[in-house]
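Teaching note: in complex prediction, the entire set of molecules is handled at once rather than each chain in isolation. The prompt given to students was simply: 'Predict the structure of this complex.' The entities are:
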Amino acid sequence: DSGVTQTPKHLITATGQRVTLRCSPRSGDLSVYWYQQSLDQGLQFLIQYYNGEERAKGNILERFSAQQFPDLHSELNLSSLELGDSALYFCASSALGGGLRTGELFFGEGSRLTVL
Amino acid sequence: AQSVTQPDIHITVSEGASLELRCNYSYGATPYLFWYVQSPGQGLQLLLKYFSGDTLVQGIKGFEAEFKRSQSSFNLRKPSVHWSDAAEYFCAVSTQGAQKLVFGQGTRLTINP
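The expected output is the structure of the full assembly:
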């Protein structure tokens, strides 16, 4: 158990809909990272938050947004969903905000999104 | 641009045989290197990491990896695999000041009994 909790574990929805994925980081970790894992793209970095502030952005679509709340949990919002958004979405947390000096990201078990 | 290549998409080895998974990176700065393992239905777990110093690093579950700067490689090895090692393995790279890990495409390991 990594200590990172993601909900829901599975989600099935239709095209055009909007969903919210939730992540609770390990106790004490200030950074939250979101990654998307799909068969064709592999693991793609989406976005990082550190103590409530956006720190880095990767290949995140404009239809997607995220935030980190004062209690450090994070939500990833996916809107106007398309078939191609079907993927496994991972949240990871780290004690540090930048540089990944310790290098260890602790990953949740992921939220599997299926768009029909 | 930073990139990580894992040349082998799928590898099959027999239980008890040795294993080497390849990883090559393209990075301008001194890299921080990692290997993660993903079991079916699970998140990623860190096996080992390299920042500096001894180029041979030991990890959990009997794995080790060797950093070879001249070859831009960080190959993962295990002298004798167990059936429980069947999983997907990801190599990842970062640098100091970077805000993210860049992952390779992964290598799926199958173990024959």
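Point out the following to students. Chain B has a mean pLDDT of 91. Chain B has no helices and twelve strands.
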